[in-house]
Amino acid sequence: MIAQYIRVGSIDEGLKVLEEHRPWGRVLAGGTDLLPKTRTARHKRSLPLVLIDIKRIDELKGIQMKEGRLCIGPSTTMSQLAGSELVLEYAPVLSLAAGQVGSPEIRNRGTVGGNLGSKNTGADLLAPLAAMGALVEVRAPGGTSEIPVRDLLAAGWQGLGRSSLITEVRVPVNRQVTWGYRRWSRESMGRAYITALAGLEPRGDDRSCRFTAVLGGPGLWPRTFECQARPGELSGQEPMLELCSRAAAEIFAAAGGAGGDYQFQIGRVALAEALELAAGEVGQ
Asked: How much is the pTM?
């Protein structure tokens, strides 16, 4: 149940109102994830939620380049992220991922901050941002901190949008790494069941590459595997699938077998397809 709606005009005001309405305050930006959760039918009892609208806060909008990093405001929509010339130039895989989120209507409303703060390990931007070493600036009543996306779960993910705000997402630019991306969903326009990224960074004159594999999905927090890949492992579908099967096996083992064998099989194939895309770009 929505008990109250409050529009705020600054980050400090938003934090103050969140504190005043704990534990029922919830940050509202696009609302594509939050509003369905407010339906009384989803709960055994009615919860007096207070929605705190941050869409008018200018500090939380826009995309710019600062000190070698793409700095993305959390109120940036998926459509804006996908169509940004800066993102297309410096982080094309992030543009690709944003462009595959849900339907056009969802992309026009859903925001970067809302996607990260949805507390869903299958959120579409988690794996790409973790792969690129992105950092999230989080502001709480006690101060501001900068947290790597891959560490968000351990660093208090549950408090996002309830007691703290994402104020910026910072993506380091590394033109040496070429990324391939694959997303697999069980249903049209549904959440990703598996997200796979394969990164290649050429090393030396022997055509070897540093290979980075990232897999994420429901129940599987984005995890990374890295190794030195020889030229023979990067030419042909069978060698690539073998390499990606090894990477996926280590990732799922580190995750305690999360997702089970079905998700593992999808993951290794999606990862091999992503690697094929990256290898094709490197070879051009």
From this structure: 0.90
